[in-house]
Design brief:
The protein is an alpha+beta fold. It has two domains: 48 residues; 137 residues, Immunoglobulin-like (Sandwich), CATH 2.60.40. The chain is 23% helix and 38% strand. The protein has one helix and eleven strands, in the order αβββββββββββ. Strands 4, 5, 6, 8, 9, 10 and 11 form a seven-stranded antiparallel sheet that branches. A four-stranded mixed sheet has the order 1-3-7-2, with no helix packed on it. Strand 8 and strand 9 form a beta hairpin. The longest helix has 45 residues. It is elongated, with a radius of gyration of 29 Å. The termini are far apart.
Length: 198
């Protein structure tokens, strides 16, 4: 009977230890749940503000700006293909800080510059004349890529590639074809900002 208080004390110690371990386990589980919920909320918020650009033929409409894109070495240019493009934002949020990267890997031509408009709100479109400077008779063999880089209003960066093909024989679809990829999320990136550009 004299050992009963000691046994009771040990039982209380064990119960306290088990309770403490259980509490720590619950705390860690709740912390993980909160972290997962924060990430899910962050991703849902990002998607709700994500822009999505599309580029297609707007022949017959009047562009507000024009850009010359070289599809051959500058000393070989002897033909110009005019293409009025409608750059439309079909996404949920505004695209800002638009920069394009034009590459024609077949001949090593590469250009990076700002799009003439700084931002395109969701649902808005922008008429932009693209003039492709090419060597006569060589355009059909070229497959350049126009890559757009831009931010949403939260500061996240996206990239979209537009695959450009020239097809002189397919007049029903037009000479220039543009196939646009979906936006690729790049995180928070600042290396697309060009020196001296605002």
């Amino acid at each position: 009977m004299q050992n009963t208080p000691m046994v009771t004390d040990w039982i209380m110690v064990i119960i306290t230890i088990v309770y403490a371990i259980t509490t720590i386990g619950i705390f860690r589980a709740n912390k993980k749940t909160v972290e997962v919920s924060k990430e899910q909320f962050k991703e849902t918020t990002r998607l709700s503000y994500m822009p999505f650009l599309q580029l297609w033929d707007a022949c017959g409409e009047i562009p507000v700006a024009s850009t010359v894109l070289h599809a051959c070495e500058t000393d070989a240019e002897d033909d110009y293909i005019n293409f009025v493009a409608k750059l439309k934002n079909i996404g949920n949020g505004t695209a800002v800080n638009l920069v394009y990267d034009w590459k024609c890997t077949e001949i090593g031509v590469s250009e990076i510059d700002c799009v003439p408009i700084n931002a395109i709100a969701a649902g808005d479109s922008y008429l932009w004349q693209l003039t492709f400077a090419v060597k006569s008779g060589s355009a059909d063999n070229l497959h350049p890529i126009l890559t757009f880089s831009y931010n949403d209003i939260l500061g996240y960066t996206y990239e979209q590639r537009v695959f450009v093909t020239f097809d002189e024989n397919n007049s029903d679809l037009g000479y220039v074809h543009c196939d646009t990829d979906e936006p690729v999320f790049k995180g928070i990136v600042t290396y697309y900002k060009l020196a001296g550009k605002k």
